[in-house]
Amino acid sequence: MATIKGPERSEIIKVFDEQINLNIQIAGTGPAVVYFHPAGGLYWNEFLDRLAESHTVYAPELPGTTQGDPYAVYKFDNYWELLLIYEEALTKLGLDKPSTIGQSMGGMIALDMAAHFRGLFDKVVALDPAGLWLDQAPNKLAELYVAPPEKVPEYLFHNQEHPGAQAMFALPEDPEEIPMAIAGRVWALGCAGKILWPMAETGLGRRLYRVENPVLIIWGREDALVPVAMAEEFGKRIKNSRIEIIEECGHIPEIEQLGKTFALVSQFID
Asked: Which of 10, 152, 237, 241 satisfies CB 3.0 to 4.6 Å to 208 for a cystine?
């Protein structure tokens, strides 16, 4: 497995009447792409490294998940305020219609941002996004939140032995750092729960008709967390959308099927 280069720098943007210091991780050069991370927090992976070879990647951290600033999550009240926070930050960065990519919770955010703020983005990529509910194909986000740690990979990966899956859940080598690493992951899920509850029906389905951007929806066929049936539902509700289903893949295609996912995304946004 390739060594992860990671972000090259970070930038703090004061938002929400300057009450919140929004941390944005940045890497690369070229056209701007905004990446919205999933509920577990920002995990910089090989997909983002590859993207940064041809683009400038901006990855905002959900308030509360930034190291050293956990209580920022208490400074906004709800999902709607989070959307305003992100829009304000991107406006202050002065980005000129970047494309956006969101994974799971991040996909929900990317699509809702496009619905709320027309003209903010160019193209939108949603990787197994949350945000809709079907009684006949319920998501298992609530189960994920109460699952014991050793069961979590089963919800996220079709092949839990995949090197990328192993790396994502690896704990620090230094035993003294392990408790803080575990606490950080639990705290990140708690912060995300503030905007994902109920799991997850934010009314996004009633707003998707407003999305005017070209949208690429990518889904892992074997997604055990948010069923692949949701892909068709998103496709029905977004006018200018295209669906790609990746075989032998769970909830995180950019890790489990990196090559196929990166090829689809790079061709689409370029």
From this structure: 237
